[in-house]
Amino acid sequence: MKRLFLSISLMVAVFLSAHAQSDNLPFFKAAKTNDISTLANLIKEGTDVNTKSKYGATALTFAVEKNSVEAVKFLLENGADPNVRDRFYQSTPFEWAFYESKFEMIKLMVAHGADLSTKWLLPFSVREGNIDIVKLLLDKNVAGANDAIVFAVRNEHVEIVKLLLDHTKIESDKLNAALITATGMNNTDLCKLLKDAGAVLPKVNNHDKNVKFAGLYSEKEGQLRIKNEDNKIFASFDDVKYYELKYDSLNIFSVAEFPSITLSFKTVENIAVAVKFRNGENQRDFVRTEELAKKEVKSEYKDEVGEVKEVLNWTAFRGENCQGNGDGQYPPVRWDAEKGLNLKWKTRIPGLSHACPVVWEDKVYVITAIGEDPTAEYRVGLYGDVKPVNDNSNHVWKIFCLDKSKGEILWEQTAYKGVPKVKRHPKATQANSTPVTNGKYLVALYGSEGLVCYDMDGNEIWRKDMGMLDAGWFFESETQWGHAASPLIYKNSVIIQADRSKDSYVAAFDLETGKEVWKTNREEISSWGTPVVYYGKDHNELITNGTEYIKAYNPDTGEELWKLGPNSEVTVGTPVVYKDLIYVTGGYPPVRPVYAIIPGGHGDISIPDSLSSGEFIKWRYLKGGTYMPSPIAYDGYLYTMANNGLLTCYHAETGEKIYRKNLKCSAVTASLVAADGKLYCTSESKGVVVVKAGPEFEIIARNPVGETCMATPAISDKLFIIRAQDYIYGFGRN
Questions:
Q1: How far is C-alpha 131 from the chain's CA centre?
Q2: Cα(361)–Cα(344) distance, rounded to whole angstroms?
Q3: Among candidate residues 695, 699, 696, the one with its CA nearest the CA of residue 683
Q4: Most buried residue among 64, 73, 167, 384 by CB atoms closer than 10 A?
Q5: What backbone phi and psi angles, to 5 degrees, belong to 38?
Q6: Cβ neighbours, 10 Å, residue 169
Q7: Interatomic CA distance for residues 159 and 152, integer angstroms
Q8: Beta strand residue intervals within 337-441, DSSP E
Q9: What pLDDT shows up at residue 695?
């Protein structure tokens, strides 16, 4: 689902009681499924047609999202308000209908009093090229044609350009900007239409041409880079994706792709010294920043190589207790899979999986899910689609054992066959959870299919049904994305965190028999982080990330020890234990926290928003937390990695922010690992970036893998082992 116009408004979340939410679930479900008789009966029994969910959404919102046209019509006829704005996305049912150009629903809501004053409706519809919606809006004299004209021209949609020109008097500067675009595209038909409407090619004065706009501009929460290329000006907020700027007037430019976004430069003696970013109500002020003239990649870095004194077993997601530390294993610093540089082996693994490799002694273990439909959507990158993949093909879930030194497959076992019980996100797979081993038992969680325990030779010992692990969209619980939290071995049990749409729990099972040791219900919605254990001098704590609260349990009994909030509405990162602190992050609204927690608390250890520390909070930030990749604590510093490649370094003890740097590696999903003074940062499409650990930022190498990498790598015995989309690779010094 498209959410271009939501990104700035995802900042407010006000919660109603869970009891009220559950009372309204039958009404919401009927709206989603076009169950008119149930809707009618519930309204007759007294249900308010505009009753709200936990997030302030109404049944009309859910009917629109599920494309239930008959329910939309019925609800409107019974008084449903198309202008009720939910509290999280800050969108109305009417606006939701635009995200996927649902014309019939839009028409129905217009007839029932939908608010047509929202500025982005017409530009958005023009950008999507939906001529029926554009006609409807223009017939209702909806504003926005001035911003929409450039979209229509860029898309070369002649019919929509004609409609805009016929229905609206376009401002001259917007008309002229559209002509510049059409001229650059060599579209003579559009140029004629625009000139006939009065457009002229403006003369850019010499002062504008001579102003130095290019450079880096900074503000508290981010950076903006401007560059010149082929006599055009481009802007980027992440040093990866650049947007072309179009001249509007003196020192003012708009983003060609999104004309409602403008950049206004302040100049001194022909040098731009500041820029004001505007997008509707949102404004940000950036100031030019002088950059140090130094090389990003220092080829003279000396790689210290030693002998492995003790081979590390990488036993779980990010190794032992999920810490990601491969010190003393001396993996390579540089490689190139396509050229064969430092490539020891690569082995094709069928199917899709985000599960990480685990290593025990001389063997590597990986799981996968093989679907029969080769056309099933699988899409990586930075985007915000919530709709699950509609793949009802038969799947086979397998586990493979490989020789660590050669990559040869030693054995494979089939765990399950059939149609997946739960849908997956287009960026996910049906095998996301990493196996765990202690050298005697090997436990793999295949999502909703179940939990299987093997011996180290692949012989099945026991299996267990874990129920429907239908983790998914918090806003609408029937939208499934799939499970991802990995199992954890503690003493003689395996622990599973099963946060799902309802009836979440955390439980321990006996490693030898699979029998339940303890189970604790959690009042949590879906989450995806793996639990970890803090091992203290006099007690241990099982740490879980979660939306409602970060929580600690007694890992021997399941008793809840303490809880902490607030947290993000979607939590993915795995907690990190380092020395005597516990680090937890969240990277989704309403808050994006980074916590350094002191173990030993009891009850609710939350502190007021105005404070940055407390009895059991060493330090914290309520902004700056990261979303998908888990943080890592290493050699005195805490590192977080954002989805867009921003690496942030904090002093682990004090929380002082040391640096925030863009690795320019595009999208990132895998978590950080470290070894021998280096951080290994795995991007989705641009290989692995190796960064020097410590307070001074330095990129050592950029190492191509040659295919999509979503899984976190493993480190053992001079090998860097990574599962990519089609192959698993073993990199080591040749």
A1: 32
A2: 17
A3: 699
A4: 64
A5: -65, -40
A6: 11
A7: 9
A8: 343-348, 358-360, 363-371, 395-403, 409-418, 436-437
A9: 97
With the CA atoms of 89, 95, 98 and 104 taken in that order, what torsion angle do they form, in degrees rounded to the nearest 10? 140
Write the single-letter amino acid at 383: Y
Give the separation between CA 510 and CA 333, rounded to whole angstroms.
40
Per-residue pLDDT, 123: 94
Q: Which fold has domain 4-196?
A: 1.25.40
> Is residue 325's pLDDT more than 90?
yes
CATH superfamily of 320-731: YVTN repeat-like/Quinoprotein amine dehydrogenase (2.130.10.10)
CA–CA distance, 353 with 617 (Å, rounded to integer):
36
**Residue 173 — pLDDT band, cuts 50, 70, 90?**
confident
The burial class, CB within 10 Å (0-12 / 13-18 / 19+), for 300 is exposed
Strand-by-strand arrangement of the 504-510 sheet: 488-490, 493-498, 504-510, 516-522
Asked whether residue 26 carries a pLDDT value surpassing 50, the answer given is yes
Which backbone phi and psi does 5 adopt, to 5 degrees? -90, 10
Q: Cα(670)–Cα(680) distance, rounded to whole angstroms?
A: 10
240 — pLDDT class (breaks 50, 70, 90) = low
In which element (H, E) is residue 18 found? helix 18-32
- 640 vs 174, higher pLDDT: 640
pLDDT at 557: 99
The CATH topology of domain 206-289 is Lipocalin (2.40.128)
Residues present in the chain in total: 734
* Range picked from 24-33, 178-187, 195-204, 269-278 for highest mean pLDDT: 24-33
Give the residue-averaged pLDDT of 618-644. 97
